[in-house]
Design a protein that fits this description.
- This protein is α/β, with parallel strands linked by helices.
- It contains 20 helices and 18 strands.
- The strands form 3 sheets. An 8-stranded mixed beta sheet has the order 11-10-9-8-7-16-17-18, with helices on both faces. A 6-stranded parallel beta sheet has the order 3-2-1-4-5-6, sandwiched between helices. Strands 12-13-15-14 form a 4-stranded antiparallel beta sheet, with helices on one face.
- Helix 16 packs antiparallel against helix 17.
- The relative contact order is 0.10.
């Protein structure tokens, strides 16, 4: 068995049409045959025929059959009744046109067969050897029939297709439900799952599902469109994904990382002319770690550095601190603030977000806060800091002989609290909602919300703590670790302390300044 190309990828979800099989070609021809005949028979002014490069990709590709009929008709300001599920292909209804298209497709498939892309077959064999779990998704109800015809059904551990969506009432793309359903059946998680799609709707759906890595397949030159939709990388063949996975950041010891200040030319080269988007942790990154969290304040000089940067770039601080505390500590209205590890976000131009599922857990956090305070009240030097969506138990001032006792007390309070999880950091135990939301999700939510497409912008995240690994692991950009947190990191570069952070920012700003005329 060969070595895994990237140990963080445990599962891969692939769209079928256009990624695995060349059935997309047959689908496109069937759609054109059906709609061209339908449009030609319409009374009144003649409608132009379906334009495959434009209409098919924009309105039909990657979504369910009936949604495709609706979207194309709407694009031409045409209206048909929805019809009945029993409508035949001759019916002039949404359902009828959908069945008519399917009849054309099955006829073409029977006559010409289904081709499998050789690069896909090569990678399916490789991934199977490496023990990576594979799922196929498709909006088509013919998915099983197509895979059987191509001899590929046995390659996949999970299949979520049009029949699954109908049976379980899953909304189609660009909703992420089919991907999330496949991930659930694979018993995987978004950070360990790679999604491979060729359709714009599919890319958008996967990004909405918060998958760490979404690959676009542009077999016919749609690179720009897929990047605009949010693809982290675009390839022409699946064999290129192997290189991408090998170059994706792996966890490694901080000391082995190149020093960022010594690697500025490399960092600038990696940006390739893209504009930086800056994300920071607060404590230990923008301010040194101090015994008293309230004493961690920005100097006037450093505050001016951030204010100047915000005039040129998007600047966000993603911190474990509560949102109101974070805003008051920094005090710059032009910055974006994500408090409580991204559960609450605020910024300029009315930007506001509260992660809704977290609000249901607030009463439980109130109870646990009281219980923790009661259990550790006899341990001198500990401090319980309540944030809206988290409880931080600081033990920086606790005698070493009593740290184990404190950790045990917190763990005992947490017993049976399945809605909460316990995290660790530098001299801290943190109780948070047990939800699939963290700094990495918040970072990518902001990139999507602010329309900061990866082809034009380079996300840079700088952090120092264990909780920052969530952002570094999800980051498709430049990750920098400040100091060390004692474990492996997904950062690309390192800095030694906060002073070097501001030196890095000074060099970054100088690099962005236009040359004098």
């Amino acid at each position: 068995m060969s070595e895994k190309s990237n140990p963080t990828i445990l599962a891969i979800i692939l769209d079928m049409d256009g990624v695995i099989t060349d059935s997309a070609r047959l689908h496109a021809r069937a759609w054109k045959q059906m709609f061209d005949a339908f449009l030609e028979k319409l009374p009144g002014e003649q409608q132009p025929p379906l334009d495959l490069p434009l209409d098919y990709k924009r309105y039909i590709d990657g979504i369910s059959r009936l949604d495709g009929v609706r979207a194309f008709l709407q694009s031409r300001n045409l209206h048909l009744p929805e019809g009945d599920p029993d409508d035949g292909p001759e019916a002039e209804s949404i359902v009828g046109l959908g069945k008519r298209k399917n009849a054309f497709f099955l006829e073409l498939m029977e006559k010409e067969g289904v081709d499998v892309f050789p690069d896909t077959l090569e990678m399916l064999k490789k991934w199977k050897e490496e023990g990576i779990k594979l799922a196929v998704i498709s909006a088509s109800r013919n998915c099983r029939k197509i895979l059987e015809s191509a001899g590929l059904l046995h390659w996949f551990d999970v299949r979520v297709d049009g029949e699954t969506a109908r049976r379980e009432q899953l909304p189609g793309k660009p909703a992420p439900d089919v991907f999330l359903r496949a991930m659930q059946e694979l018993k995987a998680s978004p950070e360990h799952t790679l999604v491979v799609e060729d359709a714009i709707a599919g890319i958008r759906a996967a990004k909405r599902g918060h998958f760490t890595r979404v690959i676009g397949v542009a077999r016919n030159g749609e690179t720009e469109e897929l990047l605009d939709a949010g693809a982290d990388q675009v390839v022409k063949q699946l064999t290129e994904i192997d290189t991408y996975m090998k170059t994706t950041s792996r966890a490694q010891l901080p000391d082995s990382l190149p020093h960022a200040l010594e690697s500025m030319q490399q960092i600038f080269s990696e940006m390739n002319g893209k504009k930086p988007v800056l994300f920071f942790d607060y404590d230990g990154t923008l301010t040194p770690i101090v015994d008293d969290p309230d004493a961690a304040v920005l100097t006037d000089g450093n505050k001016k550095v951030l204010a100047d940067l915000a005039e040129e770039f998007t600047v966000a601080i993603i911190s474990g601190r509560g949102l109101s505390d974070l805003r008051s500590k920094v005090g710059l209205d032009q910055l974006i603030y994500a408090g409580s590890h991204g559960f609450e976000i605020s910024g300029p131009d009315g930007l506001e977000m509260q992660y809704e599922p977290g609000q249901e857990i607030l009463p439980l956090l109130d109870q646990v806060e009281k219980a923790v305070k009661k259990r550790i009240q006899s341990i001198e030097g500990c401090e319980v800091e309540r944030k809206k969506y988290a409880i931080a138990v600081h033990y920086r001032k606790v005698e070493k002989s009593r740290v184990k006792e404190l950790k045990q007390a917190v763990a005992e309070v947490m017993e049976g609290k399945e809605q909460l999880k316990l995290g660790k950091g530098k001299k801290i135990r943190e109780i948070k909602p047990n939800l699939d939301w963290h700094k990495g999700h918040a970072l990518n939510w902001l990139l999507d919300k602010l329309d900061l497409a990866r082809k034009r912008h380079q996300p840079i995240f700088i952090g120092d703590d264990i909780t920052d690994e969530d952002a570094l692991r999800f980051l498709q950009g430049t990750g920098i670790l400040v100091g060390t947190h004692g474990e492996e990191t997904h950062a690309n570069y390192r800095l030694n302390d906060t002073e070097e952070v501001y030196e890095f920012l000074a060099q970054l700003r100088r690099w962005q300044e236009p040359a004098p005329k």
